[in-house]
Amino acid sequence: MPADMNDYFKKKNPGNTSQNNNSSHSNNGGGFNMNNPFDNNGGMGRAMPWIIGLVIAGTAFFALKPFTIINSGEVGIKVKTGKFDQEPLGAGLHFYIPVFEKIIPVNTRIRLITYSNVSTGELGDSYRGFEGGLRRNPAISVLDKRGLTVNIDIAVQYRLKAKSAPATIEKWGSSWEEKIINSKVREVVRDVVGQYTAEQLPEMRNQIAAAIETKVKESVDELPNRPVALSSVELRTINLPPKIKDQ
Q1: What's the fold here for domain 111-245?
Q2: Nearest to 106 by CA among 157, 58, 163, 144
Q3: Which of 57, 77, 113, 179 is most exposed, with the fewest beta carbons within 10 Å of its own?
Q4: Model confidence, pTM
């Protein structure tokens, strides 16, 4: 009886067996294999090398970081195998080739350098918040006409010119402020103040301040390409020797 029933159902549904066989063959063919989704003959298996390649490429990209962002108030200087591009890069995203190239961000905002023996807080609020940066140095010690020591407090505002920044950094390096601003200011202050006696300095303060500002600007402007724009040179305090104060 069971054999007769099997024959009965086979005759009634003759297409089921062939459909099941076709389905089994299709799963074992070039389509996606549910039993092994990572089979090389399946869709996921074929995509896997590409996925691995993309992951490796992305990791290498961010590890090498072949780009830099130049912010507002800065310029970028591209250096190719030791040679400086003379055209500065503006604000934005810039790409370069690692090992062979690099981009140096340079601040072109107004900067402040002070020569004073007082703390930053005692300088006042007008000397705070300089986006370009604040550099502090001790007061400039100067010998007056008779050889007495006088300390001069002075503040200088300036900025690096964006257009000539590549040439400036190439010539003077990252310590351009020390070579261009600091050295010139000290040289001029000693030259001007040294022409007077300590007793004359308070009386001649306005003339001395004007002479220092004029000569510092002239000294900086004489440099090739005029690399720095001076905003102000302010004589703040003339500190006389104790024995002159006591008179």
Answers
A1: Tetrahydropterin Synthase; Chain A (3.30.479)
A2: 163
A3: 57
A4: 0.70
